[in-house]
Design a protein that fits this description.
Layout lengths: L9 H8 L20 H10 L12 H6 L10 H5 L16 H14 L3 H27 L3 E2 L2 E2 L2 H13 L4 H5 L4 H22 L4 H18 L6 H11 L7 H26 L13 H20 L18 H18 L2 H11 L8 H6 L11 H19 L5 H25 L3 H11 L4 H14 L2 H14 L5 H12 L3 H14 L4 H13 L3 H14 L4 H13 L3 H14 L4 H17 L1
Antiparallel strand pairs: 1-2
Length: 599
């Protein structure tokens, strides 16, 4: 990296010039970003364009359609002072307010239209490719391996491989993957700012404050963002080209510390703790570490050969490599990179492994072994993998006579990845395509069976949906969504007496679930128990005062009790909370006509 304004003495400059150049890049102030940076951007747009016609899948229904926080901007205070699932009365260890803010911006602008959410995801992914191009270009050009200068071709190939890598389909093709893509974008921009601060001490205040702000934004998108200070520390240890005054380091780590502290305060206030709902291991500490080690190998295998991709991986997809080697190997690899004092190498290894640490959190893994890893967790770490590919490409290219053959080979790999990505995107087109594929690959997953049941229900195949819901409850009786969905399916077929015990069992397992009590209220009304239906609807409203469906259920119960005025108020509240609730408006009009007729 360049140091155009050296603060050291002339003697130090002479001493510096006597050693081989470090990982700097002599770039004039007027040098602009090459236009080829936009080639990976365009490639990403093309490869993920087929997601624009996809619908909401998996958690999208929960996070978009059932999310009362994102229908306008009136709930920003709740967003920043609550955990990610508080809008439905849930309790979570996740604090991701910027996810809700971006969703709200899209919802307010375009409404609950899937294409708008998909377009935003793809644009963010495309933006990440540009940032990665700049990052690779900055750290590789001007560096020397075997006495040869690295060229921008490595940056182009690296960013193109990131744009096309099939491991990214889950994070990009799935709307709920937004936190991973958003976190990565701001994370990499922050890294660039902190690198630039080393090159331009005269602008260190602006660059450090900007880097800290982007770091803070990355953390507010998703938890791996908080690992950024560790990477900055590794870079600083490696990148000691000249001395900096104490004020530089105080500013550098002061801004980072302030960002960490502010995030910790917001998180603690929202969650009432750092990890208040962490589960204790039921398999023993050693078993949990075995799972974490297996996860490391699994992520590395996906990055090298993205085969057998699946929305719901089980332990059966383990690579079989000894987990202990992962934990012994990581410190050795990191120590070797520090010994080499190579900024590109340390950045690649750091990005590959450090942001992966939250995904290896032992209690979380051991508490839910059915799905111990997910492809979207590799989105940010894959940037480190891509940087290592760029380093290897440049090193090998300088050692072979037919260097263009290596470039052609990597281009063919990128093309193959692109074809695989387009094909995998089609799996994420709908719940039916996604969960049919998932159950085929993981038939013993209770959660996958439950989601396929939901997809079949949405497609109108109620009988098969009920069958898969029942299989899901047998395989995973603690998967609470299944009780609600099975009850709804039975009720839709008029089997309300069969639905009743299903709802009651779900409420026994999760008493504070507003949606389940709302559906119980509707079933009680269908059975003629209107007073009990009213009580359950009011309980649901207390749990979730912003639930339009709960007010609708209350209106139905009150209307059947003959209390038309309060029923009209309930339907009015439902219509106000959900502008797309045409059924509540219809009932409100009907009751209004009845009241006018009475007068």
């Amino acid at each position: 990296m360049p140091f155009p304004e050296m603060s050291c003495s002339q003697g130090l400059q002479q001493r510096e010039s006597a050693v081989p150049p470090g990982p700097s890049m002599d770039v004039s102030r007027n040098e602009r970003l090459p236009l080829m940076a936009f080639l990976p951007f365009g490639l990403a747009l093309v490869l993920f364009a087929n997601t624009f016609w996809s619908g909401f899948v998996f958690d999208d229904v929960h996070q978009i359609l059932n999310n009362s926080w994102i229908r306008d901007f009136r709930h920003l205070s709740e967003i920043f002072t609550s955990d990610v699932s508080a809008f439905v009365g849930g309790a979570s260890n996740y604090y991701r307010p910027l996810m809700h803010v971006v969703y709200a911006g899209i919802y307010v602008t375009f409404g609950p239209t899937p294409w708008a959410f998909h377009v935003v995801n793809v644009l963010l992914h495309s933006a990440v490719t540009i940032v990665l191009f700049v990052l690779v270009f900055r750290i590789l050009k001007g560096s020397y391996i075997g006495g040869h200068e690295m060229k921008g071709t490595a940056a182009l190939l690296a960013a193109s491989m990131f744009a096309a890598h099939p491991i990214h389909t889950e994070a990009v093709a799935w709307v709920a993957g937004l936190p991973d893509v958003g976190c990565t974008l701001f994370f990499l921009v922050s890294i660039l700012f902190f690198i630039e601060a080393l090159d331009h001490p005269a602008r260190s205040l602006l660059l450090h404050v900007g880097g800290a702000l982007f770091f803070f934004a990355a953390a507010l998108f998703k938890e791996p963002g908080v690992t950024l200070p560790g990477i900055v520390l590794l870079l600083d240890v490696t990148w000691h080209r000249d001395r900096r005054p104490w004020s530089f380091w105080i500013l550098r780590y002061g801004t980072l510390t302030l960002g960490v502290a502010l995030y910790a305060v917001l998180r603690f206030n929202a969650l009432k703790g750092i990890m208040p709902h962490a589960s204790e291991s039921q398999f023993g500490l050693w078993r949990a570490f075995e799972v974490a080690g297996a996860a490391v190998w699994r992520y590395l295998a996906w990055l090298v050969a993205p085969l057998k991709l699946n929305a719901f991986h089980t332990m059966e997809s383990s690579t079989g490599f000894p987990p202990i080697l992962a934990f012994l190997g990581l410190p050795l690899v990191l120590a070797w990179a520090l010994w080499k004092r190579s900024v590109p190498l340390i950045l690649g290894i750091g990005l590959l492994f450090i942001p992966l640490l939250p995904a290896l959190y032992v209690p979380a893994l051991s508490a839910g072994l059915e799905n111990p890893w997910a492809e979207r967790y590799a989105y940010l770490p894959s940037a480190g993998f891509i940087i290592l590919i760029a380093i290897a490409y440049t090193a090998v290219r300088r050692q072979v006579r037919q260097a263009h053959l290596l470039t052609i080979a990597l281009t063919l790999v990128i093309a193959l990845f692109g074809v695989m990505t387009i094909s995998r995107n089609s799996v994420w087109k709908s719940d039916l395509t996604l969960w049919t594929d998932t159950v085929r690959k993981s038939p013993n997953s209770g959660a996958a069976q439950a989601y396929l049941g939901y997809a079949l229900f949405a497609s109108g195949d109620i009988n098969r949906a009920i069958q898969h819901y029942q299989i899901a409850i047998r395989l995973k009786p603690d998967f609470l969504d299944t009780y609600n969905n099975l009850g709804v399916a039975l009720a839709l077929q008029g089997r309300h007496r069969e639905a009743l015990p299903v709802y009651l069992e779900g409420i026994r397992l999760r008493p504070r679930w507003a949606l389940l009590r709302t559906n119980l209220s509707i079933t009680l009304s269908a059975l003629g128990a209107f007073e009990d239906a009213r009580v359950e609807a009011e309980r649901a409203i207390k749990l979730d005062p912003l639930s339009a469906k709960a007010y609708h259920a209350l209106g139905c119960a009150l209307g059947n009790l003959g209390r038309l005025n309060p029923a009209a108020e309930a339907f009015k509240h439902a219509a106000e909370l959900d502008p797309y609730d045409d059924l509540s408006r219809a009932y409100l009009d009907k009751i209004t006509q009845q009241l006018q007729t009475r007068q």
